[in-house]
Amino acid sequence: xxxxxxxxxxxxxxxxxxxxxxxxxxxxxxxxxxxxxxxxxxxxxxxxxxxxxxxxxxxxxxxxxxxxxxxxxxxxxxxxxxxxxxxxxxxxxxxxxxxxxxxxxxxxxxxxxxxxxxxxxxxxxxxxxxxxxxxxxxxxxxxxxxxxxxxxxxxxxxxxxxxxxxxxxxxxxxxxxxxxxxxxxxxxxxxxxxxxxxxxxxxxxxxxxxxxxxxxxxxxxxxxxxxxxxxxxxxxxxxxxxxxxxxxxxxxxxxxxxx
Length: 259
Description:
By secondary structure, this protein is α+β, with helices and mostly antiparallel strands. 23% of the residues lie in helices and 23% in strands. The strands form 3 sheets. A 4-stranded antiparallel beta sheet has the order 1-6-7-5, covered by helices on one side. A 4-stranded antiparallel beta sheet has the order 2-3-4-8, with helices on one face. It has a two-stranded antiparallel sheet with strand order 9-10. Helix 3 packs across helix 6 and helix 5 crosses helix 6. The longest helix is centred in the N-terminal third of the chain and has 15 residues.
């Protein structure tokens, strides 16, 4: 699933193509909004909120989308047909450009004043103007017996982190993913590091947590299951966290992150 940095970049691309432009076409290919037509309305802006995207248009209307596991927004010249086989769920087009939403996990149209009904449950956004490490720590501490690995992925605690940044943040802090939240010594340092990692990657494709942009050297543990730890040589472990069907991939080093 695209994480907060990727969604942040997607919002920037949508702004570059649509902000200030009048829509010449809107094509909602989801049954609930099949008759919705936003043609003739100016696009005001698109903002990211954690892993959610909010495209605000003239008249107090917001188009809410979520990429989920496989979704993406593609920017292409207006009039160009998407490649065959693409599962297009939404097209927003202006005179020069069109934004094509492919395999979007969620599509909603709401009044801009009602956006909080969709994203109001989220914790502080790691890449948003509301980022507040103290509030993130306060929310995490509300469930001290929960594993830190599960708590970090709960978007109600802090919004934008996913499996990649969870694994990398916990490794860099030397925290075993199954440690209880209440037993993590410095939650403030943990969430601040997560913020730094996402912020460092928000302007470029790919995830680099090691400082080395070479493809094979970009991460410490994510994508390296079974390979030796870059620090101690211990074989990187791979597992699943969470209750079914919400289990999510977790990777860690048993040497650097002792249980």
